[in-house]
Amino acid sequence: MQSLKILIATWGNPKIWGEAEYILDSEREKARTSLKLIKRKVNPDKTVVIGLDTLAEEGLTYGEVRESARRVYVNYLRELGIFRMMLR
Question: What pTM was estimated for this model as a whole?
């Protein structure tokens, strides 16, 4: 049976994250999140980002709130250069 690697990342509010230096094994990277470095080093088959619905910018129903929050996170994934990595 083939094993499947799944990376699960919990995210708070990326808007307030500052740059830090992340080290994994012998590789270092300055970034606002460790996700890009972890994905590159671990090479998971699937990555799941769990985010907060409180980041939503709009919505009258819970479905609209969830979609708004999802858009916020997708925008940050793009800004941080991770979005394309998530599609692999």
Answer: 0.79
